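Need the bound structure for tryptophan, inputs here:
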Amino acid sequence: MAASRDSQPQTIYLKNYKVPDFLIDETHLDVDLQPSATRVNSRLVMRRNPAAADPAAPLLLSGQEMKLLGISLDGRELNEGEYELSDETLLLPNVQDRFELCVSVQIDPAANTSLEGLYKSRTMFCTQCEAEGFRKITYYLDRPDVLSVFTTRLAADKALFPVLLSNGNEVESGELENGRHYAVWHDPFPKPAYLFALVAGDLEFIEDRFTTCSGRDVTLRIFVESKDLDKCDHAMRSLQNSMRWDEEVYGREYDLDIYMIVAVDDFNMGAMENKGLNIFNTSCVLAKPETTTDLGFQRVESVVAHEYFHNWSGNRVTCRDWFQLSLKEGFTVFRDSQFSADLNSATVKRVEDVSLLRTLQFAEDAGPMAHPVRPASFMEISNFYTLTVYEKGSEVVRMIHTLLGAETFRKGSDLYFANNDGGAATIEDFVSAMEEASGRDLSQFKLWYSQAGTPRLQVTDEFDEDAGVYRLTISQSCPDTPEATAAEKQPFHIPVAIGLLGEAGNLAIHLQGEAPDTETSDNTHRVLELTEAEQTFAFTGLPERPIPVLLRDFSAPVKLEYPYSRAQLQAIMSGDSDGFSRWDACQKLAVGVIEDVMRAHRGDRNYQVDQALVEACRAVLNDQSLDPAIVALMLQLPSEGYLSEIATVIDVEAINFSREYVKAYLAGALETELNAAYQANTDTGPFSVDAAAMARRSLKNTALTFLVKSGSDLYVQLAQQQLDGATNMTDEMAALAAIVNSDSALAQKLAPVVLNNFYRKWQHEALVVNQWLTVQAACPLSDGLARVQRLMQHEAFDIRNPNKVRSVVGAFCGNNPVNFHAADGSGYEFLADRIIELNKLNPQVASRQLTPLTKWKRYDEKRQALMLKALQRVKAEEGLSRDVFEVVSKSLA
Ligand code: TRP
Ligand code: ZN
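Answer from helper R.:
Posting the output first, comments after.
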């Protein structure tokens, strides 16, 4: 159903927040499920909010895309003159201080392609209410600071929908006439409407248990279509691990007797933390070795953990309003990243998170949709489920953790949960709990929540050899963003973790004027606190000029500039104790070498690949003491996305050419070592997804990708062998991608054949087919647009399914820069067409897919003009959703 609106969307401001005029003590829902005509009867036990500003305020409920069948107040049916109905509201001018309101509506789940509210996914009914989807189910106070106790009665055809689920505990069930049946669910915990969920379908489940720290027994169930029952074990183990971890690390115990997860195929995001009834995108819950890559396994583990952790950070303590979204999301992402780091390799996890942040969040922070971690305004809240709110929000929590230390941070989180349990909180509440626990003043720190943009640190240094004193001078600035100019911004409070590296390793750090610290065991690591626009830190007692290792473990989400020489980067790569910094030094080295080639490419000079990079990579490959996963990460050259982010003007072709050139050069120069790594990391024993086995596969497949890049037929054949003999999707996919992406004659001859065979083998596994679509849509070889247009005609494609859209449109426009940015603008016109099509079907997905066009300012003038033309065509479209309107109009502002 189109979410068209005639008038221009309103902007909502944080500064206008008012407490609700009414409260809803009890919510009784009676949902009679029919695909095209579902009846929802609600009974709301309501009263005026004693804290409301206006004691005579009328009752204003939200509601959209429903047919109102009847309203009664305290048992009396209202006639049409007693209420006012608009497209998005229902107003009752006269209500008492306490009353019961019954509303009956009819909705059409089968026609709901927005996947918000109640909709059908394949054969089942399900709901998605965050952020403001509940208002498509019934008229309500659909805001997170209205918490209510829900009782839900579901009725449906028993043969088609044998399973009926909602939040909390099942309290009753039975048979009805005409082959229908019903179930009643009661959730004892008051919750906002965005955490409501219901599911009805022909589902099966796997079941296990978890005994909590206080000895309570919790039933765990994962519901899927029967064909997917064999793909639930990993999610179940991940859930149990999450439950244990949250008890051990945060002291958080689960609170209901049952925890349910349901997998659905049509879903706008990854998953949703509905109380006691999580709903998951199949891509984030199903996993088995034959169909799922290691990355997929890790994603399942972290999303299951994320949604589970929301039970405390989000559900028991929820958000006062949607401006506080990062209160639950930033904190929960931080919690799930700690969990993944604890269960797997901490360095690998950190490198992955930082790469995402520096590539995509930094780009968001530099674009027209840039916003603070706590936005001050929005038109459509769905547009603010962003990398800034999630990932940068998590980095902000991580900085508090770094400043306070693990123990004090835990005291602060205990205090936060205790003070706000059962309530709707603000970011202010979170930070004040941290202040109270630590006795520290975090008022300057809070600027991280209100100022947008990525701060830039410039570092200079000097060494006084006679005195043995080394000085670091750090200055900070933050660029203009839509809500404030650089000049208006205040200096941030930034933790800068450092080490000092000498000839023989890390040096002891003594800050001038400070008593020597006898307590800390590690005197080679320090967290400097930058609070001013410019600050100098002096270190004493240094026998030699040190190499500064700055921003260890990426201690703050900033861009740091220090003129490292390549020799210094190599020294950090081999000598520093921080794994993240070693990787980062390798990236910096590779960036410099790729930029050399870019300069040569522009000037038509000879390409020279600096031997420093070759030798650094050789050393990494030969270092038996390194985790193979780290070796793989160090070898992987900075992505085109990252190289674009750090470029002054993005030259798509030069970036692609130079990166590929360096990759081929390394492949040739390191052939022996890569071959050895491939052989040494090939497992023959039973398959495992433990960190060590994944690490070996990662290095093996990185080596394969390089070797195929060397152009020799020998390695194309090796990839084909691996593809044919693969017993797991990680190896199968890596081999397929290596062949498809190679421009060698043999590979290009093989590609159509292997793609076809792969499809025939996997056509009944939707998630595998999605990966097959992605490989082709992201393939950088020429004629990408024609390939993508063919994929859209393929039987496997369906524009109504967000996973398919992400696999084809998302992969092409976001992950295939040379083809999407074709000089004739054909990629831009393609995307504009898709946005216009999706705007009517699914505004949330449409608006998200628009992101690549919003970055138009970063390209050359010709491309800018073409991108603007595509954006203007979208803007001129009739009936733009609020979602798309906000992004397109801010991009053109
Ligand atoms: N709260 C969910 C999470 O991060 C994500 C979410 C928000 C979502 N809005 C959604 C999921 C809409 C699906 C659809 O865990
Ligand atoms: Zn979340």
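Comments: The pocket of zinc ion (ligand 2) is lined by residues 306, 310, 329, 332 (CB under 6 Å). The longest helix spans residues 579-603.
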